[in-house]
Amino acid sequence: MVEAEMIEAMEFQQLSNKHGVSGVPQTTLNDGAAHVVGAVPEANLLAEIQRIMAG
Amino acid sequence: MTKLLDENVVQQIREVFGQMKDPVHILFFSQKENCDYCDDARQLLEEVTAISDKLELAVYDLQEDAETAAAYNVDKAPGIVIAAQNGDQIVDFGIRYAGIPSGHEFTSLIQDILLVSGRDSGLQPATREYLKGLGKPVLLQVFVTPT
């Protein structure tokens, strides 16, 4: 149920532009349902996942 | 061909790979056109997988092997899947790379190989418990630059 993809932002610029990547790392959840810029501690990532699942 | 990894780095990786537990299967997807880093990424993976006999590399073409690519949700090249090899079964944990894992990402690649080899995500019990009950898929895309 969970997939994680590392994306080289320069190489896949279209996708980076689509998700408004301006700083790295940026973690985008479910194709734009949420974005987190910077390092994401496990608890924060879990909270984001719970938030988009509830929404 | 010039090696991408020098002997010093290979030695360091060999030491780290000493912690590997179970076999890891890496799938690599390239494409013939519009892929500046496919050749380098493939060579990098060939050099890394040569370091341990617990590592296996399978090379595919995104177009010619479209069925395999779809089965692993790979739609970009170079595309890499780090999966587990249990006997003759390949077990996908949903770990992928789009683009060459160089610079910082090379460390991530080595760490991911170790994680998959240990068959343990390292996540907290509460996180695991929640994820087990997920009703819908979750896709995490982490955008990085290789420096």
Which strand-content bin applies to the residues of chain A? 25-35%
C-alpha Rg of chain B (nearest Å):
16 Å
Strand content of chain B: 15-25%
Please mark out the parts of chain B with pLDDT under 50 across 5 or more consecutive residues, or reply none: none
* Share of helical residues of chain A: 25-40%
Number of DSSP E strands of chain B: 6
Structural class of chain B: alpha+beta
Largest sheet of chain B, if any? 5 strands, mixed
Report mean pLDDT of chain B, rounded to a whole number.
Answer: 96
SSE ordering of chain A: EHEEH
Report how far apart the termini of chain B are: 24 Å
Quaternary: heterodimer
Spatial sequence of strands, sheet with the most strands of chain A = 2-3
Largest interface pair:
A-B, 32 and 33 residues
Q: What average pLDDT do the residues of chain A reach?
A: 96
Helical run tally of chain A: 2
Q: State the total count of DSSP E strands of chain A.
A: 3
Estimate nothing, just give the exact number of structural domains of chain A: 1
Q: Could you tell me how far the N terminus lies from the C terminus of chain A, measured between alpha carbons in angstroms?
A: 17 Å
| Helix amount of chain B | 25-40%
Total discrete domains of chain B: 1
Describe the structure.
- The complex is a heterodimer of chains A (55) and B (147).
- By secondary structure, chain A is of the alpha+beta class.
- Chain A has one domain (13-54).
- Chain A has helices at 13-18, 42-54; strands at 2-8, 26-29, 34-37.
- The relative contact order of chain A is 0.14.
- Chain B has helices at 7-16, 38-49, 66-71, 104-118, 125-132, and strands spanning 24-30, 55-61, 79-86, 89-91, 95-98, 138-144.
- In chain B, β3 (79-86) and β4 form a beta hairpin.
- At the A-B interface, β1, β2 and α2 of A face β5, α5 and β6 of B.
- β2 (26-29) of chain A pairs antiparallel with β6 of chain B, so a sheet runs across the interface.
